[in-house]
């Protein structure tokens, strides 16, 4: 028979929920999660600690490769799953830290007291998520760095008909509405019945209390749902045994019974809270009255602009150079800074489907401006009119967008970065749906121009520049190898491998793992057997000490779980653990594979290099790479671009605007909580959080010569 672990990892619909009540409240419905991950992975390894033993099993592309085997002893308990996504199925294999962090943070908020630790071994960045206040802590986190209307979040909870309901809400002095809804820990981004019930209760309770307390004039004044939600941050979490989600993506909750339950529980709790905290209730309702007045002022401003034809399709702005294509799906607009870049773009574009809109100066920071003030900004009015979507909750319509590609094209300098950030703030706060529909892009003009004689080539980044240098130099370079020599185009892929090897070495150096020790381990061909006996490890340490100065090995210890020996080495400013675990880390496995491929071609140093008639020798792979790079730059002119104005219309078309050759970066919202927090910190009123952010991230900045 097969083990429970193997069945869960290889068969669909084999999860615990299909057999027991252990998963009565759960997000997964179909029992397909981990078995699908297994099927879509090049390899997957599971390690289980149970009953004093460590068990391991390996799968490849969903097939069982080894039985569940005891590999050691342990006092711990738990399961570890390690997998590598299949490169034959997925084009991009890079994990996004922010996406994973958002999900794990959500789970920690929604499960009071649960601790989740996350480490990114690529950058050594780690976070621990534990929130004893649950969704109250979630709301406090969302409102961090915002000016609050009342100090503590309002908390509502209750359980009826086997449905558990939790709501936390708090107001800030901003203008945005920020509501997150969850059903069984799943983020229901499109809301559903729980959201409808909450909105209805909030509007009804606020009007009822406002009238009875004399804040609103009976029969004459009432607050709309939109007004009472201005500046609101709320989290709604429901847990139920049979959730009905709309579609497999589970974006919207469909259970009709949830609406009434959320509405009645919220209504009762909120009414009680307002009665017990009249000063807070008064502040909230007065803020809503202000919002209603501002909305009315904005409506009048919109009416005025409409009468003048400013926001209508009928009067396109004079500075817009429109395209002749009328189908939005085939049309694109470039938003550029200033008239000079606008002039080059207008001349270089394809007039059939490319429109150009030059904006003068820096647009208004909408993070700090109320809606009616925003409508007085000329540049913003020009942008709204050009896009044709109108603006505001009642009037904005993404389907009316005149272009399905909106491309922000700014210079690679400080002013360009600032204008790009102001535009992103505007789109994120006022036209979020355009981002969600995938309409917003950032142009990626080349960073380098490489010129040899009259021939010109462009590189998007440093990796591309290196590839081009290898390509240009290969014809003149020959490197001796154990089997003779290699040069010309055949040399290029092997030079790229050496470059990849050096990048990995740099990574180890940044993580304070001595590259010299790594190199020595690779040269010696160290594997698990070197750690199986104390004598073998002592001999390895002796070899390391002979070749590398200023290191102090600690005591050799026995690791019961791995059934192998390990040692800690003290370096000048850090420590490094030599163990089977280190050898099995993904980074060491990767560099060992690259080293194997490189040495299979070039052999061991020294390396003999012929550049035309000149003979050179390199003592290491690093020197080999440096010698080839230096030789490849001879006779070339390499220019680093900073502004679009440095390119003529033809160059701008060829490098940045031609759909056949250009590179665009699509803007997406992967972590809405983090995005909201970043916009508040960087574009909001409070200076201290911004200063802290800059201090914390200063060393991560690249291309700071902009």
Tell me, briefly, the overall form. globular
Helical fraction equals 25-40%
Low-confidence stretches: 16-23, 702-706
Total number of beta strands? 28
Biggest β-sheet, characterized?
A: 5 strands, antiparallel
Determine the number of helices (DSSP H or I, runs of at least 4 residues): 23
In quaternary terms, these chains amount to single chain
Q: How many separate domains make up the residues? A: 4
Distance between the termini: 64 Å
CATH architecture of the largest domain: 3-Layer(aba) Sandwich
Describe the fold and architecture.
The strands form seven sheets. Strands 1, 2, 3, 4 and 5 form a five-stranded antiparallel beta sheet that branches. The chain folds into four domains: 4-91, Heat Shock Protein 90, CATH 3.30.565.10; 135-292, Ribosomal Protein S5, domain 2 (2-Layer Sandwich), CATH 3.30.230; 309-445 and 647-700, Rossmann fold; 477-639, no CATH class. The model is unreliable at 16-23 and 702-706 (pLDDT under 50). The chain is built from 23 helices and 28 strands. By secondary structure, it is of the alpha+beta class. The radius of gyration is 31 Å and the shape is globular.
